[in-house]
User: Which sequence fits this backbone?
C-alpha cells in the first residue's frame, strides 16, 4: 500500500526538473523534448520506490525509509521556493520577450511556462503537506516514543485516509488552476447536469397520468425561445422602414468619422455585407434580423462607373478581412485588441475615385 505514496513523492521532483528545463530552453524546448527524459526518470523513480518497499515491513520502518522521507521533505521545501521563483521568472520573460519574438514555437512555450508553473504551485504545496504527514508517521514508527500499542495502530489507520485526501486535492487543484483543463471540467459537469435534468423530466412525464389526451398534450408542451450569441431573446416583430434606414445611416456615419478605420465595436451590433456590383447592402442586426438598404452615398455619388465598382470591391474586401479575423479569433488562432486599420490605398480609391488611373 505504500508503493503509490513513494512513487508520487519522487515523481513530483521530476516535474520540477522538467519545468526548470522548459524555462531554461524556452527557445527550442519543443525540439529538445523526447521520450528519453521520461524513460530515464521513470526507471529511476521506479527503482527508488522498489528500494523503499523492500526495506519496509508491516511492523516497523527502518532507518533507510525514515532517512528517505526526511531527505525528500527537505528537498520538497526547497523546490517549492524554487518553483515560485520560476513562476515569477516566466512572467518576466513573457512580458519582456512576447512582442519581440517572431517564432511561434517560442511564443507558445513562454505562455505554457507561465500557465504550468501557476498550475503546479498549489499541488506542490499539497505535496509538501503530504510529505510532512508521512515524515511524522515514519519518525514516530522508527523511534517509538509511546508505550501504548493503540497509538501506533491508530497512526497506521490515520495516515492512509489523510494521504488519500491530499492526493485527491493534488489532482483537483492541477485541473482547477489550469485554464484549459478547468474549462473542460466545467463543460463536463454542465453536460452531466443537463443529462440528469433531461432524464428526470422524461421520467416525470412518463409517470404522470392525465385525465384526457388534450390535457396531457397541453401540459407537455415546451416553449422554444430563440436567443442570439449574447443569450438575449431575439426580436420577432417586423422592422419598420424608419428603423431600417436609421441603422444604416448610423453605421456609415461611424465609418466616415474614422475614414475607413474599423474597430471591434463596429461588429458588436450589426454586420454589413457588400457584394461587388450590388445595389443594396444587407445588414444583420444583433437580434438576428436582416435588413437591406442602399450603399453609402460616398461610394455611389461618383460619375465614374469603373471607380465606383472598384470602391465597392474594396469595401467588400474590408468586411471579408474583418470576418476572417473574427472567425480566427473565435477558434483561438489569433488574439488581437484595439483597432484594425486598412491600407491607405484602399481608402483613397473609395474616397477619391476620380484621382485613380
Assistant:
Amino acid at each position: 500500500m505504500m508503493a503509490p505514496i513513494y512513487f508520487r513523492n519522487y515523481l513530483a521532483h521530476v516535474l520540477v526538473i522538467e519545468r526548470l528545463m522548459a524555462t531554461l530552453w524556452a527557445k527550442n524546448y519543443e525540439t529538445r523534448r523526447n521520450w528519453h527524459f521520461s524513460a530515464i526518470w521513470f526507471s529511476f523513480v521506479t527503482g527508488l520506490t522498489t528500494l523503499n518497499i523492500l526495506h519496509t515491513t508491516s511492523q516497523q520502518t527502518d532507518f533507510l525509509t525514515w532517512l528517505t522521507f526526511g531527505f525528500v521533505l527537505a528537498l520538497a521545501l526547497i523546490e517549492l521556493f524554487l518553483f515560485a521563483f520560476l513562476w515569477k521568472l516566466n512572467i518576466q520573460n513573457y512580458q519582456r520577450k512576447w512582442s519581440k519574438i517572431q517564432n511561434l514555437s517560442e511564443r507558445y512555450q513562454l505562455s505554457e511556462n507561465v500557465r504550468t508553473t501557476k498550475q503546479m504551485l498549489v499541488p506542490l504545496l499539497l505535496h509538501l503537506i503530504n510529505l510532512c504527514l508521512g515524515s511524522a508517521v515514519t519518525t514516530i514508527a522508527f523511534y517509538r516514543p509511546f508505550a501504548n500499542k493503540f497509538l501506533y495502530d491508530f497512526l497506521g489507520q490515520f495516515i492512509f485516509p489523510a494521504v488519500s485526501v491530499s492526493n485527491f486535492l493534488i489532482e483537483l487543484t492541477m485541473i482547477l488552476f489550469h485554464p484549459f483543463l478547468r474549462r473542460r471540467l466545467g463543460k463536463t459537469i454542465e453536460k452531466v447536469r443537463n443529462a440528469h435534468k433531461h432524464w428526470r423530466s422524461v421520467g416525470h412525464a412518463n409517470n404522470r397520468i392525465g385525465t384526457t389526451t388534450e390535457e396531457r398534450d397541453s401540459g407537455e408542451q415546451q416553449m422554444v425561445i430563440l436567443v442570439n450569441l449574447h443569450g438575449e431573446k431575439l426580436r420577432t416583430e417586423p422592422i419598420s422602414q424608419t428603423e431600417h434606414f436609421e441603422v444604416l445611416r448610423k453605421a456609415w456615419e461611424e465609418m466616415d468619422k474614422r475614414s475607413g478605420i474599423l474597430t471591434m465595436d463596429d461588429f458588436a451590433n450589426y454586420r454589413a455585407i457588400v457584394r461587388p456590383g450590388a445595389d443594396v447592402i444587407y445588414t444583420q442586426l444583433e437580434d438576428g434580423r436582416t435588413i437591406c438598404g442602399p450603399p453609402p452615398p460616398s461610394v455611389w455619388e461618383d460619375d465614374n462607373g469603373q471607380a465606383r465598382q472598384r470602391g465597392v470591391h474594396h469595401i467588400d474586401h474590408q468586411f471579408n478581412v474583418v470576418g476572417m479575423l473574427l472567425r480566427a479569433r473565435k477558434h483561438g488562432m489569433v488574439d488581437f485588441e484595439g483597432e484594425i486599420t486598412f491600407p491607405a490605398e484602399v481608402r483613397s480609391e473609395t474616397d477619391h475615385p476620380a484621382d485613380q488611373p
